Amino acid sequence: MNATTRGSLLAALACVLVGGSFTANSLLGDYPYAGGQFLRYALACLLLVPLAGPGAAARLRALTPRQWARLALLAAVGMVGFNLAILAAERTAEPAVPGVFVGCAPVVVAVLVPLLDGRRPRRAVLYGASLVAVGAFTVQGWGRTDGAGLGWSVCALAGEVGFAVLAVPVLRPLGPRLLSATVCGVAALESAAAALLLDGTGWLRRPDATETAALLWQAAIVTVIGFVCWYMGMQRIGAERATLFSGLIPVAAACTAPLVGTGSYGLAQAVGSALVGAGVALGSGALKRASRQRPLPVHEGARPLARERE
């Protein structure tokens, strides 16, 4: 298995896990949201620290103030801000609305990353990203909203884009595991600050059994495994191609929603899933690689070249 295939599988797994977290969110409706994010990221940080590898402290000390600012912005925009924007959008809009905007992230990243690098967007990646966005829209559909819902949905899109783009310059010096541990620690602090501001003294309480299970799933599976897999995949195939797999988030959410009775999977979801898969295959170059590896047909009566030379 080459690095590109391995990176694609890691990015796909990460996005499937994140899609499942949307279903877990539906079980935390009565828990203080920012406080729940604090518990999620704090626990994930504690689990990730032993996995950071040797020399982690030295690598953190070597970071410049600008890199620390980028990490703080990554946690604020791509993690805490993204989650709170989704929550705010769903107060006046149906969940499909922010989902559709987040589904456009592959298109934005396919254009933004090359521009930041001073090059033109790759045509295949851009076409694939557009197909992924259409597929995500087909899976989720559209719903009721107002101006505030649209505005917060745009913020959620910015958070999804920032989670990939802001990580690019700090991924190499830290590596996927230490980067994940660091941003989770920063996000926990930012979540606590947001919780105190939004919920006051009632920002944290003891979760019940269902809420505990949902928070443990988000911390140990979605955050620890999902974040590390995401950044390992992005390290191998780049932010442009990795973000294509974010189209799997609504697909995974649609597939897991029936398990907890919060949705159904029908024809529209099946068609949208197929479009997402086609867009990922086109943008990641899987179709091109498959055509290269397909053996040429041997016509009847023709002899292999090696035998002709005998």
From TrEMBL:
The keyword Transmembrane helix applies. Signal peptide: none annotated. Pfam families: EamA. Its main location: membrane. InterPro entries: Diverse_Substrate_Transporter, EamA_dom, EmrE-like. The keyword Membrane applies. The chain crosses the membrane at residues 39-59, 71-89, 95-117, 124-143, 149-171, 178-198, 213-232, 244-261, 267-287. It comes from the Bacteria. SUPFAM superfamilies: Multidrug resistance efflux transporter EmrE. It is found in: Cell membrane. Residues 6-138, 174-282 form the EamA domain. Keywords: Cell membrane, Membrane, Transmembrane, Transmembrane helix. It is a multi-pass membrane protein. Belongs to the EamA transporter family. This is EamA family transporter. It comes from Streptomyces pharetrae CZA14. The lineage of its organism: Bacteria, Bacillati, Actinomycetota, Actinomycetes, Kitasatosporales.
